[in-house]
Amino acid sequence: MDPRLEETRLLTMDTHDSPAPVLVATDVTKAYESTIALAGASLSVSAGESLAIMGASGSGKTTLLHCLAAVIPPDSGSIRMSVPGAQPVELAGLDEEARSQLRRTRCGFVFQEGLLLPELSALENVALPLMLTGHPRPEAERAAAPWLRSLGLAGMEDRRIGQLSGGQAQRVAIARAQVTGAPVVFADEPTGALDSATSSDVMDALLYATSGQGRSLVLVTHDAAVAARCDRTLHMRDGRIVREKVAR
Questions:
Q1: Cβ(23)–Cβ(218) under 8 Å?
Q2: What is the DSSP string of 76-120?
Q3: What is the pLDDT of residues 83-128, one digit of tens each?
């Protein structure tokens, strides 16, 4: 990041009240053969903050999201995750098993298409992450039901995904991302397949379930209106963060 941009950002922040960062990435690089996806990206995400990442296709934003979320390892650089109640973890250098464990316990995910299982009900989809970590099904479903109610889906617990609208299905995906209590949620184009009105409703739900509950949200989007709902927006080009905008 341009040092002048960083200086401007710091001057606009109340350094006394700023919460501790849950994610700090420093000089992260990633290449696929001869294609450089990340060329030294650095950022931090505070507890309870919503951060949008924007950029043209090929700018590196999705690769950065995947590195931050321990989906893929960076080639070099540091990514440190520090969440309440757990020891800080350096993501760079973790093997696949360790990354998988971290994703199950510390991360929630919301994708453009939801990636919900159509053969399961809304309640079963939300409960699934808890069952995968060893919780009995009745216990997992008891924990899942309040999230569906809080996101406006009361009475739809037994519906299959094909019986829900696009916006309702994304609310199920948001509930699923929250049910484990993950302190950091990563969203990749969560409104990309929705019309503008539904997109606004889904963003309301996503922000309520994440930063509204003191959790952090890192979101990749092409939609400037979606990014404007977040606390900060980072713009990427050629694998680097080139500009930052802080919401007023």
A1: yes
A2: EEEEEE--TTS--EE-TT--HHHHHHHHHHHEEEEETTTT--TTS
A3: 887 889 999 989 999 999 999 889 999 987 667 999 999 999 999 9
